[in-house]
Write a sequence for this structure.
């Protein structure tokens, strides 16, 4: 089985799905000849031609809006927006059209676009290049929001997105684009949305996280193991829909929960998870749900970035807090 | 030569029938009688539908309605040039367009009565949904045309938008994409002079809207939008050109919104009645009728019969729409995703439980 990093796994999935479905077109800024600024679409144009791998003008609303028309017509557009901080010109098309075409037409039209974008911080980038805006999309009815944490999951989740009938926002944590490799099967497989993964089992505390923070949480759990604290790590994989069932059954078992994400805290995914635990497992809790998140500030430039994002030590402190409550 | 002119552009204006109904012999597309009559009858029916909808809103039987009075020629003249397999991307005022494309009136009323069911598009009909966010639909039309091109289909798309929409970024991006990728798209601008209370001159300093096409590398043409034959002529040329693979066209149809922006608006607050009176003289329906009568295609008797038939059709459509059950609570949740996710199942059960126990 080949070992791949996240970029390679996504690239391989695009190749595989485009071969199987000639309705798939990839479009965005620099996705063709250049292969994307992170090289995620490398080689596609050579294989599938410029009719299906399209270098577009520099216009995000144009890319997404035109993709809507393509989807309505019967194509399956995969749009790349170069960085998560640049999606906003297209936000109207996403919120006012993509998310609600099915509802507005009573199911007679669907809009199965896959919107890919590098996401999150930790790469010492410019302003607008290190954002974690998932709440802005998870909050929109009609959208599915996927944030993979590993090459294996990325392939299964992207493959599922490329076969889905509904629009999918697919955020790729750029911090782990090339951070590690793992075995990724060559054959096609899918991972369904709304199904969290128990990354490791444990009995003292549940750490709920997703994306690049899964690795950071694993690092914390490893150190906590030395202190005889056993962490169960739940990787949400999709932040909309959220797999409530897995969360609740884990929290019922451990009685303690820490949520970790690199998005700001206020109204973040952690708030929603905490609310669901309150509603469904309040009496199982031995401590309040604790959140380890980025702060409610504009993502700082590299000099302050490390203060801003969660790290293993902050997670350990939160776990110690809920253990000692 | 140190200084030279690197670009010069021209925009044509076309009128076939003048405001008194006189047709220009050379420009008259001499359309077959059955097509002319279908166009005229649809214009009459559109006006009657419009009038009725306004009254229904005043009676509290439908919700907010955007009237299209005065724009019948701009709408029917253009939509009539489309083939069945071409795509229609409306804004929100194109009631005439929907009627021409075979949308049953009862569904239009169902939508106005506040149900998404009215916007369910029958399978295989290449009509898109009403689009309320301004200019966003221009991009959808470009994307659909682009898809047709990628799939080697001889299909064009036509998108409607107003003068206000030309100020939006999406209009610019749509025109730019259409130009760069030479998509088979017709941009049908109904310049009705007013974006709610803001006049056309405050939307752009350009002399015409049509000339904007030149900057994107394709043709723009201005027509008398109250002259159904001029609109038809320009649109047919643009559609044929799109089918031949020669790319997009922008058509600026000069027309006038004779009524309010919507039933929630009152035009007397921002414009002179003298201006409205002036446009009344250029009435698109009256003008077309004179043309048809002079050609011996129309008379008072046919007019009377058409009005009678349309009156009963409209009444029947309202009756049917009003007798439909449109408040099925499950429908709140049914169409958000292709498969209902667990949190929506839970919320639906919550609502059903509430309704069951409601006193």
């Amino acid at each position: 089985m080949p070992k791949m990093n996240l970029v390679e796994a996504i690239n391989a999935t695009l190749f595989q799905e485009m071969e199987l479905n000639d309705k798939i077109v990839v479009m965005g800024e620099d996705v063709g000849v250049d292969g994307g600024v992170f090289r995620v679409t490398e080689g596609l144009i050579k294989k599938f031609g410029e009719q299906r791998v399209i270098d577009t003008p520099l216009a995000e609303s144009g890319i997404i809006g035109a993709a809507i028309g393509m989807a309505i017509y019967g194509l399956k557009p995969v749009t790349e927006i170069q960085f998560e901080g640049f999606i906003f010109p297209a936000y109207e098309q996403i919120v006012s059209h993509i998310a609600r075409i099915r509802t507005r037409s009573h199911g007679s039209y669907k809009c199965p676009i896959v919107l890919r974008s590098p996401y999150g911080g930790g790469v010492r980038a410019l302003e607008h290049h290190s954002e974690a805006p998932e709440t802005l999309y998870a909050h929109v009815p009609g959208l599915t929001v996927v944030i993979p944490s590993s090459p294996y999951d990325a392939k299964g989740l992207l493959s599922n997105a490329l076969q889905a009938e509904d629009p999918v926002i697919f955020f790729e944590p750029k911090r782990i684009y090339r951070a590690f490799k793992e075995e990724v099967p060559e054959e096609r497989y899918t991972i369904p949305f709304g199904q969290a993964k128990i990354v490791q089992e444990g009995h003292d505390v549940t750490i709920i996280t997703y994306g690049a923070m899964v690795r950071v949480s694993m690092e914390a759990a490893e150190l906590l193991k030395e202190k005889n604290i056993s962490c169960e790590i739940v990787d949400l994989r999709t932040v909309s829909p959220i797999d409530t069932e897995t969360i609740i059954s884990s929290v019922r078992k451990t009685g303690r929960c820490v949520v970790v994400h690199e998005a700001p805290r206020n109204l973040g995914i952690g708030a929603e998870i905490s609310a669901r635990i309150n509603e469904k497992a309040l009496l199982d809790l031995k401590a309040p749900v604790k959140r380890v998140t980025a702060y409610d500030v504009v993502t700082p430039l590299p000099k302050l970035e490390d203060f801003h994002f969660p790290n293993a030590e902050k997670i350990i402190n939160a776990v110690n807090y809920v253990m000692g409550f | 030569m140190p200084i030279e002119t690197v670009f010069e552009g021209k925009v044509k204006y076309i009128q076939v029938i003048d405001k008194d109904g006189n047709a220009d012999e050379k420009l008259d597309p001499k359309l077959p009688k059955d097509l002319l009559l279908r166009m005229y009858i649809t214009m009459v029916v559109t006006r009657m539908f419009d009038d009725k909808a306004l009254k229904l809103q005043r009676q509290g039987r439908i919700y907010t309605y955007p009237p299209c009075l005065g724009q019948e020629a701009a709408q029917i003249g253009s939509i009539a040039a489309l083939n069945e397999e071409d795509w229609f991307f409306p804004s929100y005022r194109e009631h005439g367009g929907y009627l021409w494309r075979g949308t049953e009136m009862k569904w239009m009323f169902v939508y106005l009565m506040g149900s998404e069911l009215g916007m369910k598009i029958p399978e295989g009909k290449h009509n898109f949904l009403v689009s309320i966010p301004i200019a966003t639909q221009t991009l959808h039309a470009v994307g659909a045309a682009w898809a047709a091109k990628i799939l080697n289909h001889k299909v064009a798309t036509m998108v409607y938008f107003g003068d206000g929409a030309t100020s939006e970024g999406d209009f610019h991006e749509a025109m730019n994409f259409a130009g760069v990728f030479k998509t088979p798209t017709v941009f049908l601008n109904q310049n009705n002079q007013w974006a709610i209370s803001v006049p056309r001159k405050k939307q752009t300093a350009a002399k015409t809207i049509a000339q904007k096409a030149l900057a994107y590398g394709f043709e723009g043409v201005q027509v008398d939008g109250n002259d159904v034959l001029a609109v038809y002529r320009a649109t047919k040329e643009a559609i044929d050109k799109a089918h031949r693979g020669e790319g997009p066209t922008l058509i600026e149809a000069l027309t006038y919104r004779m009524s309010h922006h919507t039933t929630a608006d009152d035009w007397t607050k921002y414009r002179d009645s003298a201006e409205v009176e002036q446009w009344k003289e250029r009435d698109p329906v009256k003008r077309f009728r004179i043309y048809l009568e002079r050609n011996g295609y129309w008379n008072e008797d046919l007019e009377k019969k058409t009005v009678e038939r349309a009156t009963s059709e409209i009444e029947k459509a309202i009756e049917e729409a009003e007798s439909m059950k449109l408040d099925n609570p499950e429908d709140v949740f049914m169409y958000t995703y292709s498969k209902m996710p667990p949190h929506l199942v839970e919320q639906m059960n919550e609502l059903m439980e509430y309704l069951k126990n409601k006193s």
